[in-house]
Amino acid sequence: MMSTTGYTIFETAIGPCGIAWGTAGITGVQLPAIPPSQTGTYLARRFPGAEDTVPPAPVQHAVDSIIALLRGEAADLSGIELDLANVPEFQCRIYAIARAIPPGATLTYGEIAAKLGEPGAARAVGQAMGSNPYPIIMPCHRVLAAGGDTGGFSAPGGVATKLQLLAIEGAPEARGPFETGPAEPSAGLGLFDAAPVAPDFDAALAIAHLRAADPALARLIDRVGPLRLQLDQSSSLFVALAEAIVYQQLTAKAASTIFGRVKALFKHSLDGPTPEQLLLVADDKLRGAGLSQAKLLSLRDLAARAVAGEIPSLAELRDMSDAAIVERLVAVRGIGRWTAEMLLIFRLGRPDVLPADDYGLRKGYALAFDTTAPTAKELAAAGEAWQPFRTAASWYLWRALELPKS
Predict the structure, then answer these.
(1) Nearest Cα to 132, choosing from 40, 26, 35?
(2) Per-residue pLDDT tens for 185-206?
(3) pLDDT surpasses 70 at 27
(4) What is the pLDDT of residues 213-257, one digit of tens each?
(5) Confidence class of residue 149 from pLDDT cuts 50, 70 and 90?
(6) % pLDDT > 90, the chain
């Protein structure tokens, strides 16, 4: 019978986490609650009778390993002892496979079922992930749905938390906000409730138009399959733009770590800092989080403009043309046309955006059309045939980077 004797709360790059233990090993891990200040309350409710106390050496080792992993460092948690007394044998087998997935890698529910010798048990694998009491140590965030879709996540923050954890580990399925390449960008990888949603335009109509307009693009669509573009509406516009600035010219892993440290400066703000809060924080604290001087100045400019009312609200953006939005946003230090176009696609779901300056997009075009990579001007010219659904065309060209070489 699982017995929990103690628990402790500790700070990480994503906020306060908790861990509980007994004589047989770790009995539970708690990711940051919503609001984060309630993490200890949540853990105490999960394990009534356990004391908030100093962890013994093996548990402290687990705590240190979790902190290191969430800081973006190499950390092996596979040897941490778990108390599995109340976990069914079949679920223990599932967890053993999941624990062997290294940071930065993923498996699908179906792949784990196949490894179990139970190819029809994908749903049972998903249910086991959803009831995981040891998140991070038993890395259910590394287990995805079919086709590489993110799948669910039962910890606080839901799918957004799962994406954040994958981004910290550098998994290809989790890209930073507005980052392009094999996986679509995802703004706001913090601990938010909202899940990605589909854009408003008719995907079937867009695909039919692209097929008719360009036979080569039609062949790419056949290889990739259905349009799975999703919008992320989890963070405020200010936080999404601030995060985009941090991610520029950095790997997803490094940027996620830095932005997590920035958010950690605002422990009582679940959705990241407000413009007013950011302006009140001393430069040395922001630099200490890992921000360069240039990005610090860019965030200051963004916050000042937001306070002054120069950054449109989401409601205002919905009534503005694409060109007007780009013009307003590029006035902010550190935000260029490309960042504004990523916002148009992945936050607002505008149907006719082609970020011709994007290197990944031009490389995808070269692969899909079996040619050399076009210049931005050449790609823009080719894309005229794809109007008014250039956003869908862009998504498919990014997907071309994922396909095996034929």
Answers:
(1) 26
(2) 333 322 222 344 567 788 889 9
(3) yes
(4) 999 999 999 999 989 888 766 567 888 889 888 877 776 677 778
(5) low
(6) 45
Q: Which residues pair with 65 in a beta bridge?
A: none
* The CATH number of domain 6-70, selected from 3.30.70, 3.30.1380, 2.60.40, 3.30.160: 3.30.160
pLDDT digits (tens, 9 = 90+) for 167-189: 788 776 444 333 333 333 333 32
Burial of 35 (0-12, 13-18, 19+ CB in 10 A): middle
Dihedrals phi, psi of 29, to nearest 5 degrees:
-130, 140
Q: If you compute the radius of gyration of the chain from its CA atoms, what whole number of angstroms results?
A: 22
Strands (E) located in 104-181 = 107-108, 143-144
Beta strands in 104-215 (DSSP E): 107-108, 143-144
CATH classification (class only), 203-230+353-402 = mainly alpha
For residue 56, give both structure tokens. Answer: 């013994």
Domain layout of the chain by residue ranges? 6-70, 89-169, 203-230+353-402, 237-346
**Which residues have a catalytic role annotated?**
358
CA distances from 244 to 45, 148, 247 (A): 37, 24, 5
3-state secondary structure at position 382: helix
Summarised one tens digit per residue, pLDDT across range 386-399 is: 999 999 999 999 99
Average pLDDT over residues 272-289: 89
Reported as a pLDDT band with limits 50, 70 and 90, residue 269 is low
Sorted by sequence, the CB contacts under 8 Å of residue 51 that are 6+ apart come out as 5, 6, 7
pLDDT of residue 375: 94
| CB burial of residue 118 (10 Å; 0-12, 13-18, 19+) | middle
Q: What is the largest CA-CA distance in the chain?
A: 68
Task: Give domain 237-346's CATH number out of 3.40.1190.20, 3.40.50.300, 1.10.10.10, 1.10.340.30.
Answer: 1.10.340.30
2, 24 contact by CB (below 8 A): yes
Q: How far apart are alpha carbons 180 and 343 in whole angstroms?
A: 12
d(CA 144, CA 42): 26
